[in-house]
Amino acid sequence: MEKVEYLVNKLDLKPHPEGGYFSEYYRSDEIIKCQPERFTGEHVYATSIYYLLQQDNVSMFHRLKQDELWHHYTGSSVTIHIFHPEGGYQQQTLGCSFEDELAEYQILVPQNVWFAAEVKDKTHFSLVGCTTAPGFDFSDWELADTEDLVRQHPEHLCLIKRIMGTY
C-alpha cells in the first residue's frame, strides 16, 4: 500500500510490540521530581507518538500506568475496546469522518484499563497519535495475558482471542 509505505518512511515508523507501527514525536525535557508511587524510574512530563495500524493489524490488549489520549490524523476510523477494572466493557470509535457519526476526534483511555484497538475498515489503514502524561516508558506498559483476560471477561471470549491472535 503506497500511502502506508510513504507514512512509514516519512515518520520513521518501527514495529510496536503490541502490533502496528510507531515512532516517538515528542518527549519533554523536564523530569518529574515527585511522581506518583505507581511509577518506577524517572519520567518526563509528557510524550507523544505517531501510531499506524493497517488492515488486519491490531493493538493487542494492554494497559498503561497513565492516561493516554488518542488523536485521529488520517485513514480509517479506529475501534478502541476497553475493559474497565470494575468489569465493564466499552467500545469507542476514533476518527474524523463525517460519515461515521459515532467517531470522536480524540479519545481518552484511562490509566490501568485493558484496552486494544483495530482499524474499522479492514481494507484501509489508520494513522493516529497517542499522548501520555506522565511521559511513556516501557516499564509502564503491560501486555495482557490472554487466559487471564478471558477469565476476567468470559463474555468477550471471541473478541479477546481474535485481538490477541489466539482464535
From TrEMBL:
Residues annotated as transmembrane: none
One Pfam family it belongs to: Cupin_5
Classification via CDD domains: cupin_YML079wp (cd06121)
InterPro entries: Cupin_DUF985 (IPR009327), RmlC-like_jellyroll (IPR014710), RmlC_Cupin_sf (IPR011051), YML079W-like (IPR039935)
Every DUF985 domain range: 5-144
Highest taxon of source: Bacteria
Protein name: DUF985 domain-containing protein
